[in-house]
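Repro:
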Amino acid sequence: MPEVLGRPVDDALVWGDDALELVFVIGPDAPVSLVGLGAPDTSGVGAAVLAPSLRQPLVEISAFGHGRFPGSFRHVDTIIGSRLRYESHDIDERMLRLRQRDDETGLAVTSVFELTAGVAGIRTWTEVVLDGDGHEAGITLDFVSTFVTGAFLTAAPDVDGFLLASAANDWVAESRWSTRSLRESGLARIDRDLQHQPPRSRIQVANRGSWSSGEQVPTAVLLARTGDYALAWQVEHNGPWGYELGETRHGAYLLLTGPTDQGNQWSVRLRPGESFTSVPASVVVAAGGVDDVLASMTSQRRALRHVRAVDRRLPIVFNDYMNTLMGDPTTEKLLPLIDAAAEAGADIFCIDAGWYAEGSWWDSVGEWKPAARRFPGGIEEVIDRIRSHGMVAGLWLEPEVIGVRSPLALASSGRALPESAFFSRGGVRLAEHGRHLLDLRDPAARAHVDGVVDRLVADYGIGFIKMDDNTMTGPGTDAGGLAPGAGLLEHNRALLDVIDGWQARHPELLIESCASGAMRIDQAMLTRLHLQSTSDQQDPVMYATIAAAAPAAMLPEQAGNWAYPVAGSTREEMVFALVNGILGRLYLSGYLNRMADEERALVRDALEAHRVVLRTIERALPFWPLGLPAWEDSWVALGLRDPAGESAFLSLWRRPGASDTVMIPLPSLRGAQIEVEAFFPDAADGWSWRWDAAAGELAVTVEVPAPTARVLRVTRTSATPSPERTPDDQQHRDPD
């Protein structure tokens, strides 16, 4: 294991290992500040650190009666944050606990940092405790930062030297990445010397309610324009979160946080001896660009994930919903689909929405019992057919809601859950989109959801759950006398405990995270769950950028990308739909039972190619040779490379309006001899390429109309490549 260092140097604490070094200023007259964050210095000169005028307090914290100076919408410049003073620190294996105190309020604040072996990254959070001596009245916190630093200014003198890559998110329009300067993103330039004050502008990106990615992806990247420094972060919470970038009097800051009073109606009252812990976040750095730093984030995600033996099997799922049954399953419709999915090579067959209702079901859900009219012979007949093919049976489930017409919501039914089981405000039960929201802090609510999952596993042998969440909570619940945001935070954390309980009791159960597609992409969920739905998008051409962008926000081995070929469509259209799934976790749907023999053969070929990718996907690192995909890009590219950089799979999508030829930069292979092969399909008509070793560019030319897509395999080789190779010249070979 790499050596962990922790040494005071003058008024500084230098801590880290051979992948990452953090430098903190711990002087007696100012708050602790993180002034250096990067690779350890090996020159003997010393790591680059911020000048005193650029330093930003490590912790920002505010409370009722203790706000900011100067006042603004920003979460920096807090009075308590400015009063914190270093007390002590402890280093335990790979963890640093750095304690500060504010004597006026009696708040003791601990910043916690965890190193990840072999990764230039940390996981961090903040713990706050109210000491009892002299502070018996207590204090109400309304904001606690998770992480704050201006250390990125060691890579450029001011914010003009940086770009921000971030992703907007919405239903069927997920992961819409853009890269802009910090000025374009919202930091107004003012004359700070003339004004004698810091600016008030900020870049503020945040999410509200229970959809952690309902509007924004909780991952972003700060890039030095020079291309030699990048910093990426992810806020790891299944509820509200935010990040801010702004300028200080002379410097700048990055701030990560969970829910706040200003944005999320969050506050919490601490009495002597009571504590609060912020939501965690991960931060990684790289001496390079977006591919380098997101490779580090990929390694960080793998290190944090709780992987069970069942997760290692990486099964291929067929789900009956997308562009197929669309929430209307019956025995008659399912049996031929099951047979066709098995013949194609699926490992799991998931019965999606509707299995529990006789007719319209949206506002009557909650009991999760099979509808007799849909399954005249019982749902067991369908599940037995699934098992007869050696597949695992799965069900769609939305356990966090109760429909307003459900017997579990109606007192007149005699089966209603107690009022304490539901989100409420001012004593009124909340309703949203025809549903009530379960408060999983409540024992009756937890007993209900636990009972549902345990029953489905015990009675039907379910081994896969597509766990959906289509209803937003709003700010939260004030039941128990809490601020709504505090109630929501406790519920969010209770949900994670519930999931942990399910998986402890059912070690063979796989759970997919879904919330109206990808409205809940967060590592609080994904460190636990097997798959993440990446979208509800029904158009495969629009899905291309979603599939290509997915590994920027999640592990490629968790990116459940729909592949829904349509019977009777052209070969190119079918290939395009299937390519969407191959460099992630191919999530199959479509009327396979209605396909011609050659169409079914193409689907089988796609699944066989995908299984080759799955052999190495848990080690592969994503890269984007055309940059992180923007929503309207006409050419889209995603690669998965082995860590040594000797080989890679490369998916290319040509969408309508794209040029016939595209240059694919592969700078890591510049000067090398490479072999480029058609991978899927293995003899793809109308595509050709030429490798320019000196430039490190692959020129790809397409002669078939858009939309069209291919997966290529690129391998470094000592052989001299021919000037031009076409797919028809080559034989498909597995990489092993």
